[in-house]
């Protein structure tokens, strides 16, 4: 496992209930600001093994990246269960719910 992968897993594991992070935010905090797609792949391959709160990771627009019928509804429901509801544009209010990694907002 690479250092980047290890850092990504640690960061995702640290996102508290009721908060979200973006793929790009996680990538930057793990040392590769252009690694958001790598974060997505790590999340896809390691979520079960490392019991990651995958539902707390969203895109930079505050939206769920999974399509309807292929995980969107499950992720939206899991977020709602933590008190995070999507707005009329089907996005999370990042100003309210985005977790600050290392005390810095992206």
Describe this structure in words.
The chain is mainly α. The protein has one domain: Winged helix-like DNA-binding domain superfamily/Winged helix DNA-binding domain (Arc Repressor Mutant, subunit A). It has five helices and two strands, in the order αβααβαα. The protein has helices at residues 3-14, 23-29, 36-50, 72-81, 94-97, and strands at 21-22, 57-58. The chain has a two-stranded parallel sheet with strand order 1-2. Helix 1 crosses helix 3 (36-50) and helix 2 crosses helix 3. The longest helix has 15 residues, at 36-50. The radius of gyration is 13 Å and the shape is globular. The mean pLDDT is 93.
Q: What is the number of helices?
A: 5
CATH homologous superfamily classification:
Winged helix-like DNA-binding domain superfamily/Winged helix DNA-binding domain
Query: What's the alpha carbon Rg, rounded to whole Å?
Result: 13 Å
> How would you sum up the global shape?
globular
**Computed structural class:** mainly alpha
CATH domain class name: Mainly Alpha
User: How would you describe the oligomerization state of the chains in this entry?
Assistant: single chain
Largest sheet: 2 strands, parallel
Numbering strands along the chain, what is their spatial order in the largest sheet?
A: 1-2
Count all strands and give the number: 2
Number of folding domains?
1
CATH topology heading: Arc Repressor Mutant, subunit A
